[in-house]
Amino acid sequence: MRELNVSSITDAVASLCIETNHHLDPVTEACIERRYAEEDWPVAKDVLDIIKHNIEIAGEGVFPLCQDTGMACVFIELGQDVHLTGGYLEDAVNEGVRRGYTDGYLRKAIVKDPIRRGNTGDNTPADINVEIVPGDQVKIILAPKGFGSENMSRIRMLPPAAGQEGVEDFVVSVCESAGANPCPPVVVGVGIGGNFHKAPLLAKKALLVPLDQSHPDPYYAEMEDRLLEKINALGIGPQGFGGKTTALKVNILTMPTHIAGMPVAVNINCHVSRHKEVIL
Amino acid sequence: MEYRLTEPFTKEKVSAFRAGDQVLITGTIYTARDAAHQRIVEMIKRGEELPFEIKNSIVYYAGPTPPKPGYPIGSAGPTTSYRMDPYAPVMLDLGQLMMIGKGQRSAEVKDAALRNGAVYAAAIGGAAAVMAQSVKSAEVIAFEDLGAEAVRRLYVEDFPVTIVLDTAGGNLYEEGRAAYLSK
Ligand code: SF4
Question: Is B148–A109 a contact, with Cβ atoms under 8 angstroms apart?
Fold first, then answer.
């Protein structure tokens, strides 16, 4: 049994909050560069140029990439041979978020009640997801998520008869009705299968997949490419001003489901697609 | 086309802008988003004095990050505008000149903008660090308890926006997409 004090989790979360809000991961940045090179519509190219400039300024460390520094979504893979000491895991994560958002001059965007509102003042509580995995390590992935794109996300409980076509039509329609709202170019996370709980979780996890990776099953890898092509044929373009680059990438995650259903969830992320992991 | 918009801000000046034009704004503008709009509209209904003069005002739908020491503001990009749709017509009927945000608007907002000679412009969503460079000073003038959602008076220089809804009924989101698709 390996012992790990939760204070190291607090420290890691705090620095991840600040880092992710100033630096995109290199794969995401490279993807933006590639889409910029492929874009041939002048208005769209201008917008992508501003987005690239924004990444440069944010990288200097004073101004975050976006003013919506997000809800802190935390995914923890906890090795079953780890014994956490020094406090409760979720408290440690929330303390990290509190510290990161305060020390990093990030925006506090969480309200304590969904209807009666009231800002909590420190961006807690975080969205904390813990999975027990083999081994004696702790992996922490932090993904601040903006709500302009979150609000454009959808789930549909499709009947099995809808088939592949039904899934693709739904994903494309979600992107089309989102239009300019989620700050295109977007990253599209698709979760297929599971149930009303798992499909959105898969979609959200799909947003953590590096943009140069495809689904390991060629059937779904091809679907990802086809969906990207269909979405980029909509003409919405960067910021909705028209153009090719409506989406940077589509990533799909799948799992088994019930004989009676085919849940599909689409989690939209914006070009400020922030996530980073550390292993303790 | 590219324009510069300077004070005094007037309906006459914005009536020249067409959907797709780029406008660099210099002068005083105000931030307000969901909670601030709700409060302002309630104050209007109660006939109370408002935090700023609505007539000929430019309202930026934005909630910036906190400023670091030595800087007037943190990152300051636009938030999605449709959430202000229930409140915007009341403000437009009081003479608000320009809304700045991102994304589609309701039919009611489009009508209210048209009948009042007001315009809707987009700032680049997610280019918040770039937008912040144009903000020279910022001061909370109302609803400090709302934190990021408080109303701020900003002085901006060459603040870049793109006209989406113009006074002739033009709509960049429709026209831009159609132009690309028919290229
Ligand atoms: S959708 Fe993304 S880029 Fe747009 S405002 Fe929200 S976090 Fe920023």
Answer: yes
